[in-house]
Design brief:
1436 residues, alpha+beta, five-stranded parallel sheet, globular
């Protein structure tokens, strides 16, 4: 037996016994073979209560239902901590086990006419990565006792056992993931896959793992199946809703034959007519016919589920489970391109649906079926219909839509869906008459009446219902509850109001007779259920009620007793929902009832409940360190049952709450003590849009509290600003390292912000310098062009930024939008005159003087090329939304359409009536609208012209004197023109009215949603206006260079500009607060509402341009830092404060300082600028903050033929200066400035490094990749002979063909030398190793490296601290490692992402006393005590 795997099948509490037995076997050497057999086998759990917190409460009921009453039951119930301990400990042992968990689908009878779902899915599924899970039809007893071999549950377990035997016993060496698992489903009812045509498979991977991977890819779990269960349960009669299948419109819709590619059926009717139940019946019918079906139920009480984005993500999840081909493509998209969960909605639709799903072809005769219920309850029905109407799929998609009657939806359907592809169908009273009768007869058959008497009752019920199914349900429940005789039934029917509102009033009147304590509970349950942002689960509602009522004995039972007919608890999912949406409307509107729900007070209560969660003791320290990836919602809710809901909903409740002093105090307490715990959870969820949503909630709170105190107002408004700023600046850090929000991140925030002032000193580190006391609008300042070139054009996507240069080669530089690091360059071969990126951000088109080319951005490969019409110059180019064609406008007034699929081009010359004596020439400005169907042309001395591209027809002319250019509003196609006299004009397409404003602007663009207009002028000033009223909202004047281009990121949160040789990335607050979440395609509604809450006043003007720091060096003590700047200045900084003490001297504003050297005694400093001018100065400190600088030498040693100075080094005695050029090295006399000697070496492609010998003050060491040389300081005499000292390390041969730059540092004990080797290329590779310092002498012929860090992903070597090397890794963590061979690398702190200073070299240094010094945006930042922080070991 020791050699055979053991497969355990355990039911209920037996699963806990198996887990405990395995843990005991692992620890006991006697049972080591048993533990091995168990680990190589599998554990199958049937209804096992894994979750300690839930199982402890239900333990007594479970055991009583399974084994009867025993003495130990009460003992276990009272000491349920032992069960919790089993579940908690097991996770440490389960990593390598194969686990399967099954949960019941039906409640179990527990006596006295009561039943309960004993072990629900949340308790029965552990949630481990190596666990499969599924539902088994049956209650808690019958899921392990099957009546026949044909029972579905028996087949499932049998197939699983056969599969495990095959993989575990017959093929011991083959892992389970390599074989086909049994057809189990995770997260949906069995009908979703069993016999439903769900071709996912299970065929190549375990479904539960696929579902887990999908939730990671999509950023959410698809819980829409719970809505299907809810409405399916309302169909108590099996053959109800069959009438729809006999309708001609339905038969036409369901038909897979015919010429129409996609068909639409719109079913509409009054409220409570049974539309959602009918939708569930259609879904089940399609699934039973093995049709590939996806569905979505919009629910008014689910705020996040009402968005277009949630709808699309749910369809993606379901279609992935149906189509293996689509699933694999989705995984590929997520891995190789932009993450799916972060795609803007428009990109999500284009990339995942249009480009991927709609290109997937199933069998010839197959179709896909989408069922969409309650479309009228979606946030943006019109937008969603506009998408559905554009379906053009290889596999036909038939779309079924239900909604209430509404003119808006009717108008949208008529506008966006082709008439021949759509059929409307209205629910008539006669349609549902038979179903209502069948439902009533089924429910009333238990009454002791004759069949004809039942028929009469049913007839009266249906006649009185007026076609409202919900009325029949309520009436039947009332009869069963109150009538005891036939006469009583008729009396009840007579008393029943025919209107639903009157019926609800009757129910509430009955509730009024309850005792006061029950009424208070009923009001709380109704308020929480009506105003919750999504349906709460019982455990969540229990937690929400707990602060007021404590723990209720049985929440399900309580709801049935105190809220009869109004609320339903789904026994399988645990969701607490109103029986129908009309109940919500009635409770909110009926103010005369004592059970009226005051939404303001209900939201007030829920806000307090949500905020109270964060005050729990569990959040007093970071929780993320105890969670393993993926951080799922069940994992979070295991910490606190309301954790996920509170994290995603408190701000929505706050915006709708009635403000008072109590709530104000709760908000302030939350912001003073617990807000970082919430930010941490937002990071765990990977959803930082929650921070912006929280900011909007706080801003709304201030608006509603005019009498709030100044201190509290400053606190709330400060956090409203901070939450908006944190995500774009530090978002990647928070998501990757959520725990860091507590101690590591706050010190890097500006000291005058709330997060900086409250929590900046809470951790071990402190940050000084930088000069940023407040948030900076500039996120990054990218130096793109060099050597006289300029930035000409640019375009931005969600992942890539492309900037073209002015040179004749046609270079476009590609950057990562997140890190602002250069990725690659593409060469068009001629000057680039136009550039555009497709909507998915995968391709760019570049237009030049003679040709256009298409490029794949990720690889930089050219994939297509075409010549311009008639040898003309391309002035503008744009992809169409489907990325299948490119439209271009050329200098000979030609519109060219390039069909990329067939590689053909269509050319159309503009034709106009000639005007005598006037010549147009080429337009000064050309702009396409967002769909590339219209083009705007600005000719000097002519009005702006708008042409329809497909019809080649002039459709509008906009009055202008001498326009420079124009742009379209992407929302409504209004036109904004820039005139030569600095006038900005807005042309309203609808009213044909023109608005003009006198500005200095000459470039302009709109944000993606069309709510903002941004202009740039020749003075470098950016101005942001409302797009409709042209009201000035914001102004930025940080830099003074002329602005030549503007564009937005696809989500509208970042603004880019180009000026001179730079590209700037801006995140002004007015943008950040206007984009809460991309919940719709245009986002127009959310944007407008947000703009109304932005600051109306213009922020004060920012400081003037800050010169960049080009080089820096520290003194020998680490107390002071000297920096050279791009304006020629040499400044002295104080390390402890990070402040600039004084400018020592300047080289002149036209030259930048290239290199600095500071003597060991601190008395001499030498600098050299870009003109090779050397300045030698004597320094003398006269106070703690004041120095005297005396210039000793100012000279030009003569122009070097080998370029600029690469390094300066002063001798130990301060008498000599080494100036290192590329390939040439000069020794200068510091007293006279005269050259003493010169050395030249053959390897001129490498950049070597000189280091003062740590062992011998009179010697200097020269480092190159393969050789080191030891020289004397006296006359630069080579002491090691002609061959030098060979450096024995693998890089010497591996990088033999590469150009390499060297750096070297000696440790403070002078025993080791640390070297950095980096390739001189784009995307340089860096490696580092150490050497024994004592071996660098004249007698050595070869030195072998002492140790290396080749296995680490390092960005650069910063320096040394004591005897440790200090690195910056690729994730921007500052790490250290001892120079001894066998030590590990420790992470200390990370640099925030906004410290990335683009393509320029990152200037950083370590002082002798352990401060980390970094140059950012022209200022110096010092991190103090950073080396004391220990954040664990760096992973290899």
């Amino acid at each position: 037996m020791a050699d055979a795997p053991i497969i355990f099948v355990s039911h209920s509490m037996g699963g806990l016994v198996v887990k405990k037995a395995y843990m005991l076997a692992v620890h006991d050497s006697t049972y080591v073979d048993v533990a091995s057999s168990m680990s190589r086998g599998a554990m199958i759990f049937l209804g096992t209560p894994h979750r300690g917190s839930d199982s402890a409460a239900k333990l007594h009921t479970i055991l009583s239902a399974t084994i009867g009453s025993k003495a130990f039951i009460e003992e276990l119930k009272s000491k349920s901590s032992s069960i919790t301990a089993i579940n908690e400990d097991f996770r440490h042992y389960a990593k390598d086990l194969t686990l399967w968990s099954f949960y019941e689908s039906r409640p179990t009878s527990i006596g006295a006419g009561r039943s309960a779902l004993l072990v629900d899915r949340d308790s029965a599924v552990i949630g481990y990565e190596n666990e499969g899970s599924s539902q088994i039809e049956g209650d808690h007893r019958s899921i392990c006792k099957f009546e026949t071999r044909e029972a579905p549950g028996y087949k499932t377990i049998r197939n699983l056992l056969l599969h495990l035997i095959e993989t575990k016993v017959c093929a011991l060496a083959k892992p389970i993931s390599d074989t086909a698992p049994p057809p189990l489903n995770d997260g949906h009812p069995p009908e979703y896959t069993t016999g439903s045509g769900a071709k996912f498979a299970g065929a190549s991977r375990r479904p539960s793992l696929a579902a887990k991977q999908l939730s990671e890819i999509l950023g959410q779990q698809d819980t829409n199946g719970e809505n299907l269960l809810f409405f399916r349960d309302n169909r108590v009669v099996e053959d109800s809703c069959k009438w729809i299948f006999h309708k001609q419109s339905f038969k036409w819709w369901a038909d897979t034959k015919g010429t129409i590619a996609s068909r639409y059926l719109w079913l509409y009717g009054p409220p409570a007519a049974g539309k959602s139940v009918l939708a569930s019946a259609i879904i089940d019918q399609l699934l039973s016919e093995n049709k590939t079906t996806a569905f979505y139920f919009f629910r008014r009480n689910n705020v996040t589920g009402r968005t277009t984005r949630s709808f699309l993500l749910s369809l993606i999840a379901q279609m992935s489970m149906h189509s293996l081909e689509f699933y694999e493509k989705l995984v590929e998209i997520d891995a190789q391109q932009t993450k799916v969960h972060s795609m803007p909605t428009r990109v999500l639709w284009q990339k995942v649906f249009v480009d991927t799903l709609f290109e997937t072809r199933e069998s010839v005769d197959s179709s896909w079926y989408w069922v969409i219920d309650a479309l009228d309850e979606a946030d943006a029905p019109s937008e969603l219909i506009s998408l559905l109407g554009k379906i053009n799929s290889e596999t036909p998609i038939n779309v079924f839509i239900t909604s209430r009657v509404g003119m808006d939806i009717k108008r949208s359907i008529q506008t966006f869906i082709p008439k021949q592809a759509m059929r409307p169908e209205q629910i008539e009273a006669a349609d549902t008459k038979a179903d209502m009768a069948a439902h009533a007869r089924h429910e009333l058959e238990s009454l002791p009446f004759e069949s004809n008497e039942i028929d009469e009752i049913v007839h009266l019920l249906v006649a009185k219902s007026q076609g409202i199914f919900l009325w029949v349900r309520f009436a039947v429940e009332e009869i069963l509850a109150t009538a005891h005789s036939l006469e009583g039934v008729y009396e009840a029917l007579e008393a029943m109001p025919s209107e639903m509102a009157s019926f609800f009033e009757q129910i509430l009147d009955g509730m009024s007779t309850m005792r006061d304590s029950n009424k208070r509970i009923a009001k709380a349950i109704l308020g929480n259920t009506v105003c919750a942002m999504r349906p709460l689960r019982t455990v969540e509602l229990q937690a929400a009620l707990h602060p007021t009522f404590g723990r209720l004995a049985s929440l399900d039972y309580t709801i049935k007793q105190v809220c009869p007919h109004l609320i339903k608890v789904d026994e399988s999912s645990g969701l607490v929902q109103l029986i129908h949406e009309t109940v919500r409307e009635f409770l909110l509107q009926n103010k005369d009832s004592e059970f009226h729900v005051d939404s303001f007070q209900a939201h007030h209560h829920l806000t307090q409940v949500c905020l109270g969660v964060w005050a729990e003791d569990v959040f007093s320290s970071p929780i993320s360190s105890s969670l393993q990836r993926p951080r799922s919602i069940p994992q979070l809710n295991a910490i606190h049952p309301l954790l996920h809901y509170a994290a995603t909903s408190w701000f929505d409740h706050l915006q709708n709450a009635a403000m008072d002093k109590v709530l104000e105090q709760a908000i302030c307490d939350f912001l003073r003590t617990s807000v970082l715990a919430w930010v941490e959870v937002a990071g765990l969820l990977g959803n930082l849009t929650l921070l912006t949503a929280g900011a909007l909630g706080l801003e709304a709170a201030m608006t509603q509290s005019p009498l709030i105190s100044y201190v509290d107002k400053r606190l709330i408004s400060g956090w409203a600003v901070d939450l908006v700023r944190i995500a774009p600046k530090y978002g990647r850090n928070i998501v990757t390292y959520p725990f860091s929000i507590h101690k590591l991140l706050p010190p890097f925030c500006p000291i005058k912000t709330q997060i900086g002032s409250q929590f900046g000193s809470a951790g071990e580190i402190s940050v000084v310098g930088g000069g940023h006391r407040h948030w900076d609008d500039c996120l990054a300042h990218i130096t793109v062009a060099r050597e006289g070139e300029l930035c000409k054009l640019f375009v931005c996507g969600s992942e890539y930024l492309a900037v073209t240069l002015s040179g004749s080669k046609g270079i476009a530089v590609i950057y990562d939008t997140e890190t602002c690091q250069e990725l690659r360059r593409i060469c068009h071969g001629e000057r680039i005159t136009a550039i555009h990126m497709n909507i998915t951000g995968e391709y760019i088109v570049t237009g030049g003087l003679r040709s256009m080319r298409i490029w794949r951005i990720k690889t930089g490969d050219s994939v297509a090329q075409v010549l311009n019409p008639g040898g003309s110059r391309c002035l503008a180019a744009a992809f169409r939304p489907d990325s299948k064609s490119v439209v271009a406008f050329t200098s000979n007034d030609t519109i060219a359409t390039w069909d990329l699929r067939h590689d053909t081009a269509k050319e159309s010359r503009l034709e106009r009536m000639a005007v005598e004596g006037k010549y147009r020439g080429s337009p000064w400005g050309v702009c396409f609208d967002k769909d590339a169907t219209m083009v705007s042309l600005a000719y000097k001395g002519w009005p702006i012209e708008i042409w329809d591209i497909d019809r080649v027809e002039l459709v509008e002319t906009v009055p202008a004197q001498s326009p420079l250019g124009s742009c379209f509003n992407p929302y409504n196609n209004d036109i904004y023109g820039m005139d030569h006299d600095s006038t900005i004009l807005r042309y309203d397409v609808q009213t044909q009215a023109t608005t003009q404003i006198r500005l200095e602007a000459h470039v302009a663009t709109c944000n993606p949603s069309g709510t903002l207009l941004v202009t740039g002028d020749s003075n470098g000033v950016l101005k942001i206006f409302t797009a409709d009223t042209m009201e000035l909202l914001y102004k930025i004047d940080k830099y003074t260079d002329i602005i030549t281009g503007l564009c937005f990121s696809p989500d509208g949160t970042k603004l880019y500009d180009i000026r001179s040789s730079h590209c700037n990335v801006w995140i002004p607050e007015v943008l950040l607060v206007s984009v809460r979440e991309d919940s719709s395609v245009s986002g127009i509604e959310s944007e407008h509402s947000a703009i109304n809450r932005t600051t109306s006043s213009i922020p004060p003007e920012s400081s003037s341009t800050m010169a960049e720091i080009t080089t820096l060096t520290c003194d020998a003590t680490g107390s002071f830092i000297c920096c050279g700047k791009s304006n020629g200045g040499v400044l002295l900084y104080h390390t402890q404060s990070g402040r600039a003490l004084q400018q020592l001297y300047t080289h002149g504003s036209t030259f930048d300082v290239r290199a600095l050297a500071w003597s060991a005694d601190g008395s001499t400093i030498v600098s050299v600028d870009s003109s090779q001018r050397f300045i030698v100065s004597r320094l003398k400190q006269i106070s703690t903050t004041k120095w005297v600088c005396e210039r000793l030498q100012d000279f030009y040693p003569g122009q070097s033929q080998n370029g600029a100075v690469k390094q300066l080094l002063i001798s130990a005695d301060g008498s000599r200066l080494l100036a290192s050029f590329r390939g040439t090295h000069k020794l200068l006399n510091l007293d006279t400035g005269e050259q003493m000697c010169e050395r030249t070496f053959e390897a001129t492609d490498n950049v070597p490094f000189w280091l003062q010998s740590p062992q011998f003050p009179e010697q200097i060491i020269y480092f190159d990749l393969r050789v080191a040389r030891v020289f004397s300081w006296h006359a630069l005499e080579d002491l090691t002979g002609p061959n030098g000292v060979a450096l024995d390390h693998s890089l010497a041969t591996d990088w033999g063909a590469k150009k390499v730059r060297a750096f070297a540092y000696s440790t403070q004990d002078k025993k080791s030398i640390v070297t950095e080797w980096s390739t001189i290329e784009r995307n340089a590779v860096m490696r580092s190793n150490t050497w024994n310092a004592a071996k660098f002498n004249a007698a050595s012929g070869r030195i072998h490296e002492s140790s290396n860090w080749y296995d680490l992903r390092l960005d650069r070597l910063v320096g040394v601290y004591r005897n440790q090397a200090v690195f910056l890794d690729r994730d921007l963590w500052v790490c250290s490692s001892s120079c001894n061979a066998s030590t590990e690398t420790t992470r200390h702190f990370y640099m925030p992402m906004d410290w990335l200073n683009t393509s320029e070299e990152r200037l950083a240094a370590m002082t002798r006393s352990g401060e980390f010094v970094y140059a950012q945006h022209g200022e110096l930042i010092v991190v103090k005590c950073g080396m004391r922080s220990n954040q664990g070991l760096l992973e290899q």
